[in-house]
Structure formats: C-alpha cells, structure tokens
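for ur thesis appendix - AB hydrolase-1 domain-containing protein. copy paste whatever u need, i formatted it the way the template wanted (i think)
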Amino acid sequence: MGIVEEAHNVKVLGSGEKAIILGHGFGTDQSVWKHLVPHLVDEYRVVLYDNMGAGPTNPDYFDFERYSSLEGYAYDLLAILEELQLHSCIFVGHSLSSMTGAIASILRPDLFDKLIMISASPRFINTDDYYGGFEKEDIDQLCNAIEENYKSWITGFAPLVVGGDMDSVAVQEFSRTLFNMRPDIALSVFRTIFTFDLRHFLSRVTVPCHIIQSTKDLAIPVTVSEYLHRNLGGKSVVEVIPTEGHLPQLSAPDITVPVILRHIRNDIADE
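the 3d part is after this line
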C-alpha cells in the first residue's frame, strides 16, 4: 500500500473493469456508503477512502492551510487515482466530495467518465442574486456553537441534518462519525465548506454530472440543484428524490441506492 492509500484508509473492493470512487461528505467517513457498496462489488472495482480530517484518519496529517479550500481535497483525490493507476472512473461524491470531484475534474477531465453528485452545493450562503439556504450570521452562530461545546452541538446538529430524532439509526450513525472527528478539525472543515463559493468554477466542469437531491434537505434547497444544472459547463441532469435529509444514502437507502445505481449504469441521453 502506498503512502497516499495508507493516509486515506483506501480500500479497493470487487474486480470489475470499470472503477467507481466513493467520496464522503463532512462529518462522515467511508462507512456512509455501507448500503451502496454491496450492490457494486460484483460488477465494478470499488474504491473507498476517507477525506483527511475524518475520524479514522490520523489528525496529525491534517494541514489546516491545505484544507482551507477544496483544492486540497481535490489534489488528494487525484493522488489516490494516480497511486492506484486508475486512468478513468465514475466518481460518486456526497456533499463536500461532490464539489471536490468537480474541481478534480477541471484539473484532470480525462480521469472522470462522469460525476454523480449527491446533496451538492457550490455555495451555502445567500447573496443578492443567489439562494444557498443560509445567512452569514447563521454560519457564524454554528461555528461559535462548535467552539463552545462540540458534543452538545452534535446532539442538535445531527438530527436536523439527517432528518430524524436521536433514536434514528441514521442519526446515531452520523453522530458517531461526527464524534470521531477532532473538534478543532471539525470546526475548520465546517468553516471551509460553509464559506466557500465555487459558482465561478461551474462553467469549467465539462464532465457529465448527475445531480441527486432530497426533496427536503435542511442544508440545501432544491433550487441549488437547479442552479448547478443551469451553470455546469457540460451535460447534466437533476433527479429530486422523495427523501428527507442531507444524507439520503444513509437515512433512506431503499429509495436512494436504486437511484444511484441507475445513474451509475445509465449515461445522460443526447438531446
């Protein structure tokens, strides 16, 4: 195993010719794909990895400057592909990783057959001409809450994001992976995600993009998926699914997994 693979806990499952890379979002790790992976391994070569800063990674490797923008995560993704000697893949990214995949595809479009974006947003903060779902003051308050009492913040944040109460298995799972992050790293990643503005990148994304969005997602209004569709530089398609929450692959796998599989197997039709 190479240095990059070891640092990101890379796992390669299955032996199909086509490679599928699974990238997780904030507060989770590669375990968030546990409902999807069994449906892929017989047909594809499946690559799982942890973003730097996720609970299972070594916190000593987390470079606060490198990961103050999504380019750091995009370079990590490209390094993983290089170390595994993968020359093409389908990239399935959730939340943070959906936009990481977009940036990586701008840098190396030849490596990506398509991007499947789940709960994706190029910007979370509202502007005069854009509705991302949050005011800057909302983000400041959330950051302050993380700083003051991380564990207490999780008990309030996890049910809101997942869409359920603390008795929900999905909420408990998200809470577990959030707890596994070091609080100062969680704050840094949270701040990076909720203050980035990647709208100016979108026209440079030429790889086909399949956008999957929950009907009700506290973090991302449905209008954001439509904004992505209008502004991406290549072919794109949006599917809004009848789920609630920001992690539908974890909270509603019976609905979400078949949709992801369909988008993996079917390309966007030529108009």
